[in-house]
Automatic annotation (TrEMBL):
It is a multi-pass membrane protein. Its main location: membrane. The chain crosses the membrane at residues 21-40, 103-122, 127-144, 186-207, 237-259, 271-299, 311-330. InterPro entries: ABC_transp_permease, LivM-like. The keyword Iron does not apply. One of its GO terms (cellular component) is plasma membrane. This is Inner-membrane translocator. It comes from Pararhizobium antarcticum. Pfam families: BPD_transp_2.
Length: 361
């Protein structure tokens, strides 16, 4: 990264203002769509798939913050998600807490776990971070599925500390079933949608802040960033912690929504799907995870009846996206918008076309 990449002057201020206006317009449109959606979707199955898609988008947005903006190639994202889900379930199961009371302590515990992972990765970069974090995730999976020792008796049933291969079930919910009766899924949808909106708003604030600038600097040119006073170790631990908080919070909400959590959530296919969502949508773009989620979840649903060709179809979509759109769909749309702006400003009669100046200038 060089100093010329930083926006300067009046033109860049106008560009930033227009970008913010576009983001605000998209946000308002999404909020309106989210509020109206339950009134137009009668199918419980479709609404359930939308809730699941929101979980995917939340996880992908935090992996995008970690890798797309900060350049930390971690493969422990689903481990963090599982930690939040398991911690929420275990707090409720062993201590009898309400789900609402367990979510934040579980998320804070996950932050502590992520900081340990971050400390282990401090002197590593690139593929070495990926290998170490993947090893941590796989170790976590093996510790859970091989846990066969009896920890507590529940009636006549022996339960393992981590739930073992079975996991935890019916440890509590949000109370929407008792409150909304047959419409409980709409209540859960509102909770998950609110979590996604809060996560995206917080991520946007980080990306646009000086902290976000430091993350991008470390990704683009670590040597230059460090020379300019950015503390790589501190920034890496910070982004690990921020990403972990929202990812694990989503894990806790996921466990409460389904009233179950098991080791299957740590499968490699889940991790690869999250990465594919980010790549298809656009790594390092704010709206990329949401767009990628919409495309891949919709494609997966369309090919649900294709059997063994379902995975092949998703693989083709991902391969085509990487080859033809290396910046993802959002990056491609950004390039198209830039091309249209340049064409609009093309020379007319040897002079650049200019829009009329506002009155008073």
């Amino acid at each position: 990264m060089n100093t010329h990449s930083f926006p300067k002057g009046k033109a860049s201020a106008k560009g930033l203002a227009s970008l913010n206006k576009l983001d605000i317009a998209i946000t308002l449109l999404l909020i309106a769509a989210a509020i109206a959606l339950p009134f137009f979707v009668d199918s419980r199955y479709v609404l359930g798939q939308i809730v699941l898609a929101l979980f995917y988008a939340t996880i992908a947005s935090q992996w995008n913050l970690l890798f797309g903006f900060a350049g930390v190639f971690s493969l422990a994202q689903m481990a963090i998600f599982a930690f939040g889900g398991y911690a929420t379930a275990m707090i409720c199961f062993y201590f009898g807490w309400n789900v609402w009371g367990a979510l934040v302590p579980a998320a804070l515990g996950s932050v502590a776990f992520s900081l340990i992972v971050g400390l282990a990765c401090l002197r590593l970069t690139g593929v070495y971070v990926a290998l170490l974090t993947l090893a941590i995730a796989q170790t976590m999976y093996l510790l859970i599925v091989t846990d066969t020792e009896c920890f507590v008796m529940v009636g006549s049933t022996c339960r393992q500390f981590t739930g073992g291969a079975v996991g935890f079930a019916r440890f509590g919910d949000f109370g929407t079933r008792a409150l909304f009766k047959a419409q409980w899924l709409v209540g859960n949808y509102a909770i998950v949608a609110a979590l996604f909106a809060i996560t995206m708003a917080f991520t946007y604030a980080i990306v646009k802040s000086p902290m976000g600038l430091a993350f991008r600097a470390l990704k683009d040119n670590p040597g230059y960033a460090v020379a300019r006073g950015v503390n790589r170790f501190q920034a890496q631990l910070l982004v690990f912690g921020i990403s972990a908080f929202f990812t694990s919070l989503a894990g806790g909400v996921y466990a409460a929504h389904f009233q179950a959590i098991g080791p299957g959530i740590l499968s490699m296919s889940q991790l690869m799907f999250i990465i594919a969502i980010t790549v298809v949508g656009g790594v390092g773009t704010f709206w990329g995870p949401l767009v990628g989620t919409i495309v891949l979840v919709a494609a997966d649903e369309v090919m649900r009846e294709a059997g063994e060709f379902r995975t092949l179809g998703l693989g083709i979509i991902i391969a085509v996206s990487i080859v033809l759109m290396p910046k993802g769909l959002v990056g491609r749309l950004g390039d198209l918008a830039g091309w249209l702006r340049r064409r609009h400003a093309a020379p007319v009669g040897g002079k650049l076309a200019e829009s009329p100046a506002p009155a008073g200038e």
